[in-house]
Amino acid sequence: MVDRDRRSLIRLLAGLPLLGSVAACANLRDVGSQGSRQVILVELFGGNDGLNTVVPFRHPRYAALRPNIAIASNDVIRIDGELGFHPALAPLMSLWESGELAVVQGVGYERPNRSHFRSQEIWETAADSDEILTEGWVGRALTEHPGFRLRRADAEAVALGNGSLGALLGRDARVVTMNDPRQYLRDAERLANVAAPATTPALEHLVKTQRDALATASALRRKLEASRRSDISLPGSALGRNLVNAVALIEAGVDVPVIKVTHGGFDTHANQLGRHDALLRQFARSMAGLREALVQIGRWNDTLVIAYSEFGRRVAENNSRGTDHGAAGVAFVCGGRVAGGLQGRQPSLDDLENGDLRFGVDYRRLYATVLAHWWGQAENFLGARGHRPLPLLRGALT
Fold first, then answer.
1. DSSP characters for 273-287?
2. Which ranges constitute the DSSP H helices of the chain?
3. Quick one: 345 exposed, middle or buried, by C-beta within 10 A (0-12, 13-18, 19+)?
4. How would you class 272 by CB atoms within 10 Å of its CB: exposed for 0-12, middle for 13-18, buried for 19 or more?
């Protein structure tokens, strides 16, 4: 009987979308100004082509190096005399014009790695390109932040969809992964019917994970059932569906400081124009819809959205009317407290590094902004390594 229960427990834990934690969480709801502030991470996986996202339409080398895939100067949405948005980003113009969208140019790191998964790992762990770290930057930040240690959170982070969890993982972080909150609760109810004595350290860990899962599911159930679901609609893409669930969790008062979603498909080696247009259109519509939904429920000023990609693309197009893996890219930051506009400089097309754009803003400065200016932790592990926050926020906590 014990062996059968143990096997049942292991099978259910493997299927339940909750990763185990080691330490208790802290309750941040009333701990300082950062208490209600949340972060939504949007990973544009595959290597978004920043050069066709924020277009240097006046530079003669842009069209010369991309004879088939350059965005025509008449089509770009001009944001200054030299740069313009890809036309698919038109839904973002309301955020841009209201000063709630910042575009960070030339984001990257020294000695860039062109492997999707290695570069993703670097971004997730806030590592140098030749450094192997095992803890995600979010997991570490929540572990070390003194305010978060005073919290009893429902979870430290939630990953919606099927993206990587690396940035969220840490020795003291409970991370919930789900495709749909209601399905998560149904899965947790199945787990509640399993009991097994903790006869070994390994099984004891599994039983503890079961208890953590049930505690989290119980908190989610109470809040989701008590919540009046707003009439929120976002585009019918996977990104849109995941953001609808993110808004549902926030509206229900689920206490989680970080939510992560992934928008994949940006590995545009061939026939880039149509594919990239569709991806950017889904992204822009989803961001505009997310803003509208968060304004509707009164949480836009307490939410910081960061969209990023593991690298950019090569400057010159390839023979398949696409682009190959490159280096520096572009990141988007939006929210009710964001100081909108251009950050950093557009990398020069006259000074390439092995055919790639040179980075000018270390990607870890985005994270340092979250830690220092959004969550008010002036002293943090990124600052100790020399990564200064960017001036992205109005009313920063430090």
1. HHHHHHHHHHHHHHH
2. 2-15, 60-65, 93-97, 116-125, 137-144, 181-192, 201-226, 238-251, 272-296, 364-369
3. exposed
4. buried
Number of Cβ within 10 Å of residue 110's Cβ equals 10
Q: Which two tokens stand for residue 130?
A: 């030749």
Q: 50-86, pLDDT tens digit by residue?
A: 999 999 999 999 999 999 999 999 999 999 999 999 9
Residue 245 identity: N
CATH of 24-181+237-385, one of 3.30.1050.10, 3.30.1490.100, 2.60.40.10, 3.40.720.10: 3.40.720.10
CA 178/CA 161 separation, integer angstroms:
6
**What are the Cα distances from residue 157, in Å, to 18, 167, 362?**
10, 10, 24
Give me the half-sphere count of Cα atoms (radius 13 Å) on the Cβ side of residue 122.
24
CB neighbour class for 107 (10 Å; exposed up to 12, middle 13-18, buried from 19): buried
Nearest to 306 by CA among 87, 103, 156, 47: 103
Cβ atoms 219, 184 nearer than 8 A = no
- Chain segment 315-357, per-residue pLDDT in tens: 999 999 999 999 999 999 999 999 999 999 999 999 999 999 9
- List beta partners, residue 279: none
Distance (Å, rounded) from C-alpha 163 to C-alpha 185?
20
What are the residues facing 343 on neighbouring strands?
104
Please state the domain extents for the chain: 24-181+237-385
Of 294, 292, 213, 284, the C-alpha closest to 12 is 213
- Asked if residue 335 lies in contact with residue 98, where contact means CB atoms within 8 angstroms, the answer is no
pLDDT at 26: 31
**Residue at 70: amino acid letter:** A
